Recover the amino acids of this structure.
């Protein structure tokens, strides 16, 4: 029910034209208002706080849809922020709220958060600083674009006077949640990418038949489909469990596996689209650019694979298969 409702809103309010307009600096206020008015930002909030009180698994299809539509506002981050703030005594402020999984304090007391998702747009940021949770006003931060063409990522720097006291000590949970969100976004975007690539290969005719009928193209599509399916399973794992926040290991597996699929999936999509694949007019680049940014957000697959590897070594004498079963069963 919730997924169908959000799909309808996104189909109407988050068209490729809207995504391009936001990238070019136009205000996303109408899109954000549509999401805020629908109540979807409160999906993980408790019923006592006016939310839906959904489980993580119920929210996952919605986060997947955000990726399929290349949503250019931090709706997923705002949903997660409300879950992270539960029990802190602090309510999420109105407006676009994003997550910064790691920040550092400079020698002069200022705070720097690098490559923050939607850092160019967000009005507030929930930040992990060495395990502490801070809520900061982005209007007081210096913003520097931290990506390529059309990026909405930014490095944010707050002066010492604008850095408040910590409001909770679950900062590391914020990073796990942020990584899981990126995994869901990548899985959704890759679903869209595969569907459009398959559609193009069935429509594009060369030498008298659709290129999708050629064995070499079918082979590339099958490998692409395998990667997309594996990424979806891994991302879904991050949102299993009864807790309101993803656990570290499932989130690490989800982020690592989806990130690993990005180079092959994006490259195959561009290759099979041929010369039109590199054009700005084709919607393909709206997704492949984001996929590469999401792959690096909160750490690439190398960072998260190391966390999984260290946990595997610490679980001795369990073998790899027993370790995987333990993680999936606990999730």
């Amino acid at each position: 029910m919730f997924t169908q409702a959000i799909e309808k809103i996104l189909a109407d309010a988050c068209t490729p034209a809207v995504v391009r307009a936001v990238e070019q600096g136009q205000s996303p206020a109408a899109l954000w208002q549509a999401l805020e008015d629908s109540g979807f930002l409160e999906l993980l909030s408790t019923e006592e706080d006016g939310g839906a009180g959904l489980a993580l698994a119920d929210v996952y299809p919605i986060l997947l849809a955000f990726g399929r539509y290349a949503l250019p506002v931090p709706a997923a981050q705002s949903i997660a922020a409300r879950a992270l703030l539960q029990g802190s005594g602090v309510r999420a402020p109105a407006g676009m709220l994003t997550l910064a999984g790691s920040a550092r304090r400079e020698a002069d007391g200022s705070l720097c958060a690098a490559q923050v998702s939607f850092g160019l747009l967000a009005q507030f940021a929930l930040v992990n600083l060495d395990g502490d949770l801070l809520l900061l006003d982005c209007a007081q931060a210096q913003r520097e674009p931290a990506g390529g063409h059309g990026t909405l990522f930014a490095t944010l720097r707050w002066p010492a006077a604008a850095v408040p006291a910590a409001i909770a000590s679950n900062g590391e949970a914020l990073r796990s949640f942020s990584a899981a969100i990126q995994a869901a976004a990548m899985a959704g975007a890759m679903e869209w990418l595969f569907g459009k690539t398959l559609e193009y290969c069935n429509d594009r005719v060369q030498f008298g038949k659709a290129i999708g009928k050629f064995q070499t193209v079918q082979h590339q599509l099958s490998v692409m489909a395998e990667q997309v399916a594996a990424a979806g399973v891994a991302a879904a794992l991050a949102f299993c469990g009864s807790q309101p926040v993803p656990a570290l290991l499932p989130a690490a597996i989800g982020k690592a596996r989806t990130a690993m699929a990005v180079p092959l999936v994006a490259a195959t999509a561009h290759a099979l689209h041929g010369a039109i694949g590199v054009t700005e007019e084709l919607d393909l680049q709206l997704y492949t650019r984001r996929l590469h940014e999401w792959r690096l957000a909160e750490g690439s697959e190398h960072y998260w694979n190391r966390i999984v590897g260290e946990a595997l070594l610490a679980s001795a004498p369990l073998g790899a298969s027993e370790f995987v079963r333990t993680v999936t069963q606990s999730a």
Remarks:
- The chain has a mean pLDDT of 94.
